[in-house]
Amino acid sequence: MAAPAADLPRRRRRRTRRVPVTLLLPALLGVAFLILPLVGLLVRAPWGGMSDQLTSPEVWQALRLSLVCATAATGVSLVLGVPLAWLLARTDLPGRRLVRALVTLPLVLPPVVGGVALLLVLGRRGIVGSWLDSAFGITLPFTTTGVIIAEAFVAMPFLVISVEGALRAADPRYEEAAATLGASRLTAFRRVTLPLIAPGIAAGAVLAWARALGEFGATITFAGNFPGRTQTMPLAVYLAMESDPEAAIALSLVLLLVSVAVLVGLRDRWLSTP
Nearest Cα to 229, choosing from 53, 64, 56, 57? Predict the structure, then answer.
């Protein structure tokens, strides 16, 4: 007896959802490749002495510095990145594609190279740093401000991409309607555009903050590794691996917890399926 016509689409969907073995095995290996190192971190963690590891003054010092610098770097990214994203999304800027490529370059640039580039520009003998030092006596490398600059350099592209995507998804007719009612472009941006793209700004800010919190290469190259001044959590992990591996594991767990919290907070935006 032939199957009812209503059951045919359902059967077709079931057939299309079957995963070929040739794709399933590499996929499972990929999952294992990404998850097993994290499982190993949890298994080898010194759970019995975790409280002692995390309550040491050095750990709290590095954690406090990391939180302060990551938050400040996110603030810099917001102040500079939101207008930049608007420029890329809402204007016909000459060479816009080139500007977008340069803005997103830190995403693929090795962080150590970014730190070297910052030194060449903002170091005491750099293009801008020599002028800052001679004119104002401002020295940026190997300072807490240097940590913030290095983290903002690698984190800002995440915010720019997120906000630009939100701006492209937002209907520009609302801004045009505000302009016809007499609002200036700045007022329309502040009263209309910003509320529309607020979720995108929030998501980009969280991603930028998490990226800044985990930054290592540019920080150690441009700001160094001085406890209490430039030693953030990733640098403390690197230093602890040489003398106290259990402390390094404990610090790594803290950063892992932060990363998981960021993913959970952004799951509706980045991880949901249509």
Answer: 64
Q: Are 262 and 207 in contact (CB under 8 A)?
A: yes
- Residues 238-251: tens digit of each pLDDT: 888 887 788 888 88
Question: Tokens 């401002």 sit at which residue?
Answer: 138
Please check whether residue 266 is in contact with residue 260, taking contact to mean a CB–CB distance below 8 angstroms: no
C-beta separation of 154 from 215 below 8 A: yes
Give one word for 228, left, alpha or beta, with left for phi > 0 and alpha for psi -120 to 50: left
CA quadruple 168, 265, 198, 151: dihedral positive or negative? negative
Taking the C-alpha atoms of residue 129 and residue 125, their distance in angstroms, rounded to an integer, is 6
Of the candidates 160, 146, 270, the one whose C-alpha atom is nearest the C-alpha of residue 215 is 146
Amino acid at 269: R
What pLDDT digit, counting tens, does each position of 165-187 carry? 888 888 777 777 877 877 777 78
Q: With contact defined as beta carbons under 8 Å apart, do 212 and 69 qualify?
A: yes
The CA distance from 270 to 272, in Å, is 6
Task: Tally Cβ neighbours within 10 Å of residue 273.
Answer: 3
Please give the Cα distance from 17 to 4 (Å, whole number). Answer: 21
Burial of 80 (C-beta count, 10 Å sphere; 0-12/13-18/19+): middle
Helix (H, G, I), strand (E, B) or coil at 123: coil
For 176-225, give the secondary structure using H, E and C.
HHHHHCCCCHHHHHHHHHHHHCHHHHHHHHHHHHHHHHCCCHHHHHHCCC
User: pTM for the whole thing?
Assistant: 0.82
